Amino acid sequence: MRKPETIETLYLDFDGFFASVMQQAMPHLRGKPVGVIPFDTASAQYTTVIACSKEAKARGVQNVMRVPEARAICPDIVLVMQRPDLFRWAHGALLNEISCEIPIETVKSIDELCCTLTKSDIGDPQGLARRLKSFIAENIGPHITCSIGYAANRLLAKMACKMDKPNGVTIWRPEDMPRPLQDLPLTEVPGIGGRMEKRLAAAGVNQMEGLLDLQPKQARALWGNVTGERLWYALHGYALKAEPTGRGMYGHGRVLPPEWRNLDKAYDCARLLLIKAARRMRRDRFYTNRLWVWLDLRKGAWVQCRDIPSAHDDKAILSALDILWEKARDDLARHKIEIVRVGVTLSDLTPANARKRDLFHADDEDRQKWERLTADMDGLNRKFGKRVLSLGPLTPPPGGYAGGKIAYTRIPSAEDFW
């Protein structure tokens, strides 16, 4: 395994991305403590600040903080509803600016990316950082800033990137390691959360020094898989390539506004989310064999699944949803419930080129008809660049952007907003 003798990776993380994009697009928000929320301000007291500006963070507000708590800490916080379409546009524009200066190796999320350094970049990392920040400020806007980390590999560069936020540049050269790591808490290492921290503590590893002193096989045993061993090598400066991952599911979830927290409205939301998940699945040429529906209740949860033999058309998938929803009504309608969040997941995927045909379940004449009809609807929607046809009515919940959520590992496409 190769151990680089110089920095090889740049990791870039945009500072307070959602809030800073809103400030750049809306001048009246600039310089103010801003909190981005999922719903409009009429429902603000029931929701959470999903992202906040550097001004809000300086006042003690944190991401994923309940609005009443944020207002108690920062009474003049300005709450604005999320704009996933704007965030997606800004993401594309920023990638374009960066790629004009250095090729982007991997886009990690809506606000994080990494690049492999060229020889000239290795010789002047500060100059590269200045150019990138200058291009962003001049061509996108000065209110969107980024922090940059340099190191021998991606994991160390990501950790370095966090050291001088916002708008900082940190360089961890191999000859300086592991000194910059030694005073960091274990939870600063990507992949070590609260549960893993407790497991390490039970094994006598309470500080970074103890983690670094482990042997690779010991780390593997503590994690219970190869992840621990790979993490050990990455922390010790070895060059590791990310392992390829396969698609396991397609799904969407949505927190419901207060007036939608009943079975009828939750069904409308689930139906819309499911159609959008199925459309994404078809774009990637997969079939599903199982549908999951989950409801987060104010007290408890309801989760059920149903097998769907090798399906990808809207009719088969929505029919499975209707059957599961009748089960939900039977189980929940007798009780006074409040559905806080609804979600749907299409799992047990089969690539289209590996699909096994089944005369009785998946490929009778009726199923083939609905598959052709679904393909025609998808084609017309793509042609006009919006939703012009759907199987039955679609009723989006207040706040919009259902199915256009920006998850950590997924950046919505334009079609997700139809």
CATH superfamily of the largest domain: Reverse transcriptase/Diguanylate cyclase domain
Number of strands: 15
Domain module count: 3
Q: What portion of the residues fall into strands of 2 or more residues?
A: 15-25%
How far is it from the N-terminal to the C-terminal residue, by CA? 47 Å
Count up the helices.
14
Arithmetic mean of pLDDT: 90
> Main β-sheet: number of strands, strand sense, barrel status?
5 strands, mixed
Q: How does the overall form come out from the CA principal axes?
A: globular
The amount of helix comes to 25-40%
Q: What structural category characterises the helix and strand content?
A: alpha+beta
Helix and strand string, N-terminal first? EHEEEHEHEHEEHHEHEHHHHEHEEHEEH
Short descriptors:
3 domains; DNA polymerase, domain 1; Dna Ligase, domain 1; alpha+beta; Alpha-Beta Plaits; 19% strand; five-stranded antiparallel beta sheet; 418 residues; five-stranded mixed beta sheet
Question: Would you kindly provide a written description of the structure presented here, covering whatever features stand out?
Answer:
With 418 residues, the chain is an alpha+beta fold. It has 3 domains: 1-177, Reverse transcriptase/Diguanylate cyclase domain (Alpha-Beta Plaits), CATH 3.30.70.270; 178-244, 5' to 3' exonuclease, C-terminal subdomain (DNA polymerase, domain 1, Orthogonal Bundle); 258-417, DNA polymerase, Y-family, little finger domain (Dna Ligase, domain 1). Helix content is 38%, strand content 19%. It has 14 helices and 15 strands. The strands form 4 sheets. Strands 7-8-1-9-10 form a 5-stranded mixed sheet. Strands 11, 12, 13, 14 and 15 form a 5-stranded antiparallel sheet that branches. Strand 9 (146-151), helix 7 (154-161) and strand 10 (169-171) form a beta-alpha-beta unit. Helix 10 crosses helix 11 and helix 12 packs antiparallel against helix 13 (314-332). The longest helix is centred in the middle third of the chain and has 21 residues, at 263-283. It starts with 8 loop residues before the first strand and ends in a 34-residue tail after the last helix. The mean pLDDT is 90.
